[in-house]
Every structure is written in structure tokens, then in C-alpha cells.
Amino acid sequence: MGARASSCFSFSRLCCCWISFPSSAPRPPPTPPAAAAIAYLPCPDMDTGTAPGAATTEARLPPHPRTPYADADRTLRALAAAAEGFGRRAIGGLHGALYHVTSLQDDGQGTLREACRAKEPLWIVFEVSGDIHLRTYLRVSSHKTIDGRGQRVRLTGKGLQLKDCHHVIVCNLRFEAGRGHDVDGVQIKPGSTNIWIDRCSLADYDDGLIDITRQSTDITVSRCHFARHDKTMLIGADPTHVDDRCIRVTIHHCFFDGTRQRHPRLRFGKVHLYNNYTRDWGVYAVCAGVEAQIVSQCNIYEGGHKKTVFKYMPEKAADREETVAGWIRSEGDAFLHGALPCLVDGPGAECVFRPEEYYDKWTMEAASPALKEVIQLCAGWQPVPRPPDC
After folding, report:
1. Is 262 a catalytic residue?
2. What gap in Å lies between CA 46 and CA 238, rounded to an integer?
3. Catalytic residue among 199, 262, 265, 267, which?
4. Which of 24, 242, 333, 351 has the most neighbouring CB atoms within 10 Å?
């Protein structure tokens, strides 16, 4: 199977590709890429040579893997409910009016803040490019889509706060230089559900880039670029927040570009990682804290000075007596430049959740040099036009 990639690629176990089967049916064994029906979808600015959205069933990997969501940029609101994974039901402001951001000021008429605090559903688009310097967290209310396609908008100073909100989509924004105690690029807590963060570039915040805690669940983070940061993504607050056992997050086609740690760090919940590229971390790549369940499929882990990919962090839950770490199952991951999986074997690894028990399909490629190249191209803010609202 290694012949599908360059000779420097080292694979773990078996690589699954396009996954699609009813959740009610018995789970079939993993299928190797040569026999799988794999969905290849276009990446912005790539010449695919095939019709957008077309699937291939060839018994070999095509030369250019492609990321999902080909149809999401055809019309403005096609983005709604297009997410894969746990956040697949997020519709954002699908049923709301268009709100046009015409000012880069922190607050006032025509600003992003004015739109985000509105009670009614809104699909928020931008008529201006530039920096919005936030003096305080920008709190986002339910049923909002913040759609940065067609402009180059960067949030600085503080970040977005998704607090007790539902059905929010954040697409194609840049987050940089957030300052202050507990300041994250995107802070999701408490109790927020059905959230999708897509194609965002995040760097250089004083706390996290995306933090998901305190019973927030059913969230997808896709095609994002993370750079110049230490504690990148925390999921699950601390060992005292035992209600975080409900947390479910999917992270896919993201580029963790030299960030030090937490890609992510998880406590209590369930995280499905697939087709991400993580390189040159400073501490570890992925950490399983107390009762964490992590499924890592067909990701690329490229070591630098530090080599440990998977770290286990034993902790004591507030309602338990024993001190335990979580569990990680790795399938089809590639470990490059001396990256060491450091997986812990045992019965617990077999008890890690199965994604197909929660959603019946997702778009996944085998880990390969071509996939690595495409993730670097397609993760983060993209110079795509705003689609028509029709």
C-alpha cells in the first residue's frame, strides 16, 4: 500500500477512503483504497479535468486529490447544511435576509457586530475588505452565517464568541493578533451546537485559536490554516467539567502549520480527525486527556524537532476515583520525518467510537504527497468570489 505514496511515507494500520454505509447496517471491515469508491472534489483554482462533484471509482488514486464541498460555492446559500461530520446539520442564517457589512468599524451601523447581535437569522456578507479591530469579544447569536467569500477580511484584537448559540457558520475569514487574557480566535462555549468553521486562517492569539468547551457539541472545523501559535485547539475545558462528555467534533482537511501543540487536546468528548496535515509541532501533535476518544484517519504527521505524534495525559475526572487518560485509534495515518505515533495498545483503543455510528459518509483520501500539497493550497482563507444568491 505504501507504493501509492512516495517511499518516505510510513502508514499506520489500514487506510480507509470514501466511507458510505447506513448507520443501521452492520459495520463492514475497512476497505483498502484500491477497491474503494473514493469521492474526489475540486479545490479552488485547481484544474480538475472532470466535472465538479463527480465521483471516481477507478482502482487507483488520481494524480490530484481534491477537498470536499465542490457544490458549496455554486450559490451563496448552498453552503448551509453542506458540512461533513458532527457539524453537518449547521444551517447558519439560511432562512434569513442578507446583511451587507459596509463598515470596518468595531460597532455601529453597517458593522459585523451589529449584524451578529441581531436576534433574527441573517446571512452576513461583506462589501469591504480590510481589518476589523475588535475592542471586545464579538458575540455571535444563533442562526448566523458570517460569509467572507469575495472579500479579504481580517479580525484582530479579540475574536468571535459563540455563547449559548446554535446554527452558526463562519466561512473564509482571517483571525490574527488577538490580545488579552482568555482571548481565543473563535471561542465556543457554553452549550453551543451545530457549528461549522470553514476555510479560516488563524494565527497569533494570546490563548487558543479555536477552543470548544463546556458542553458545546456537534461541531465541524474544516479547511482551516493554523500558524504562529502555541495552544492551538482545546476541546473540553478541564477535568471538573464532566458534562463535556457530550462533546462531538469533526476536524478535517486542516493545515496545522508549525503550531506547537493541541491539534487538538481533548478531554471527555469524541473527535474525528481525517485528512489533516500537521507539521513541525513544538510539543506533540494530538493529546488525549481524561476519557477522550480520538479517531485519527488518513492524516499526515510530519515531524520536525519534536517527534511525538500522540500524547496521553492521565487526569482524574471530578466524579471518578481513578486517574486515566483517553484513547486514540489511528487508521491510515502517515508519519513522516521520524514522527513517532507513540500509540498505547489495549482494550480501550477498541472501544473508541466509530464515526459511521454517527454519520454515514464523509469524503476522505488516502494520505499521500498529493493530498499534502492540496491541503496546503486549500486550507485557510481563499480568494474565491462571492457566489450569487439564487
Report:
1. yes
2. 42
3. 262
4. 333
User: For residues 234-261, b (16+ Cβ closer than 10 Å) or e, as one string?
Assistant: bbbbebebeebbebbbbbbbbbbbebbb
Ramachandran region, residue 381 (left: φ > 0; alpha: ψ -120 to 50; beta: rest):
beta
What would the pLDDT profile of 214-245 be if each residue is shown by its tens digit?
999 999 999 999 999 999 999 999 999 999 99
**Which CATH homologous superfamily contains domain 9-378?**
Single-stranded right-handed beta-helix, Pectin lyase-like (2.160.20.10)
Largest pairwise CA distance in the chain? 58
33 band by pLDDT with thresholds 50, 70 and 90: very low
Can you tell me the distance from the alpha carbon of 273 to that of 137, in angstroms, rounded to the nearest whole number? 28
How far apart are alpha carbons 207 and 153 in whole angstroms? 21
Mean pLDDT of the chain: 87
Closest CA to 159 of 223, 146, 151: 146
* Helix spans in the chain (H): 112-116, 347-350, 369-378
Alpha helices in 192-313 (DSSP H): none
Q: pLDDT by residue (tens digit) across 248-260?
A: 999 999 999 999 9
User: Alpha-carbon distance 229 to 75, whole Å?
Assistant: 34
| Span between the terminal Cα atoms of the chain, in Å | 45
Q: Given the DSSP bridges, would you call strands 38-39 and 55-56 parallel, antiparallel or unpaired? A: antiparallel
CB-based contact 116:352 (threshold 8 Å):
no
- CA 302 – CA 287 distance, rounded (Å): 16
User: Which residues, 6 or more positions from 219, have their beta carbon under 8 angstroms from its beta carbon?
Assistant: 86, 87, 188, 192, 193, 194, 195, 196, 197, 212, 248, 249, 250
**Which stretch of DSSP H or E encloses residue 137?**
none
With CA atoms as reference, report the closest residue to 155 among 130, 189, 191: 130
For the chain, domain boundaries: 9-378
The three-class DSSP label of residue 73 is: helix
Residues 130-148 pLDDT 10s: 999 999 999 999 999 999 9
Q: Between 240 and 18, whose confidence is greater?
A: 240
